[in-house]
Amino acid sequence: MRINLEGKRALVAGVADDVGFGFHIAKALAEAGARVTVAIWPPAMKIFETLLRRGKMDESRRLSDGSLLEFERLYPLDAVYDTMQDVPAEVRSNRRYSERGDFTIQGLADALKADFGQNPVDIVVHSLANGPEVYKPLLNTSRAGYLAAVSASAYSLVSLVQRLAPLMAPGGSFASLTYLASERTIARYGGGMAAAKAALEADTRYLSLEVGRRYGLRINTISAGPLATRAASVTGVINEIVEHYAQSSPLPKPLHAMDVANTVAFLASPLASAITGSTLYVDNGYHSVGKSLGPGDLDWVLGKNDLA
Ligand code: NAD
């Protein structure tokens, strides 16, 4: 039994380099046979296009059959804006935005329809987040910073689903990425980002009911273990968190972006046709740990001392 996404088109929103989850998700979906389009934050778009054109990502783009991951389209997307009416003048006139046309969520939906017709996508992945005050404890977070985190990281999913679900045929699906900070305290993950992830998970449950009943679509979110990406490095402690997970998880191996990406491909496939509204942990089991292993604990776990 294989994951087969042949004949499907996927949109991955939140790709800006070949390190983050988004790129690997695009790769996994392509490995399964899907055609892949990506949506890129306008300030990051030029550099991504340049890296792509100059072949700097060719090694990472290599698929198992030797071919290179191809993107059918690269769309600009700033997911904090639903329509161009929402965009402040200083953003519109910014050079990195002004040359991109309509970079809003509605603009993305319109462009997909214009490029690919009535049912332009089957699989939509939200792999983006931003919290301008993520480095601040909640007690030091401003209202504007908190709301910006929720807007970019949680409402962006709601808006994407509002605008794309009506364009998708039954059987299609959405996926997003969340983090354990939604339900446990993780020091240094501040600025309202934990609330944004909690909202993302609650919204996934609500949206599953609504898109399931209205459109026959599914939606899930993956609670991923830590990965040293550009977004995660903003916390300043990502390497420490990665190390802590490796020491404390049931599976003491590093988490690879492809572990998460392959799960997204599974969730998008007919093999997962009864899974919706779920938060699925892909974190080497860390979420289930109540106490990290202390001195002597591993011997006990391995049954090597008298107490076992
Ligand atoms: P990343 O930096 O590769 O991806 C984040 C992406 O969001 C970037 O491409 C960035 O350009 C984009 N983005 C930021 N603001 C945007 C906006 N307003 N509009 C459109 N795009 C915007 O980092 P990542 O860690 O791969 O993050 C992907 C997802 O994974 C995020 O939801 C993140 O919270 C989640 N996640 C990450 C980790 C981790 O440890 N890295 C763990 C769990 C969940």
Give me the secondary-structure topology.
Layout: E1 9-13, H1 21-31, E2 35-40, H2 42-53, H3 58-61, E3 71-76, H4 89-93, H5 95-98, H6 105-116, E4 123-126, H7 143-164, E5 173-178, H8 193-215, E6 218-224, H9 230-233, H10 238-248, H11 257-268, E7 279-282, H12 297-301
Parallel strand pairs: 1-2, 1-4, 2-3, 4-5, 5-6, 6-7
If you had to describe this structure to a student in words, what would you say it looks like?
It contains 12 helices and 7 strands. With 308 residues, the protein is an alpha/beta fold. The protein has one domain: NAD(P)-binding Rossmann-like Domain (Rossmann fold, 3-Layer(aba) Sandwich). A 7-stranded parallel beta sheet has the order 3-2-1-4-5-6-7, with helices on both faces. Helix 1 (21-31) links the parallel strand 1 and strand 2 (35-40).
Number of strands: 7
Morphology: globular
Instruction: State the major sheet.
Output: 7 strands, parallel
CATH architecture name = 3-Layer(aba) Sandwich
Descriptive terms for the model:
Rossmann fold, 308 residues, alpha/beta, 12 helices
Provide a compact summary of the structure.
The chain has 308 residues and is α/β, with parallel strands linked by helices. It has twelve helices and seven strands.
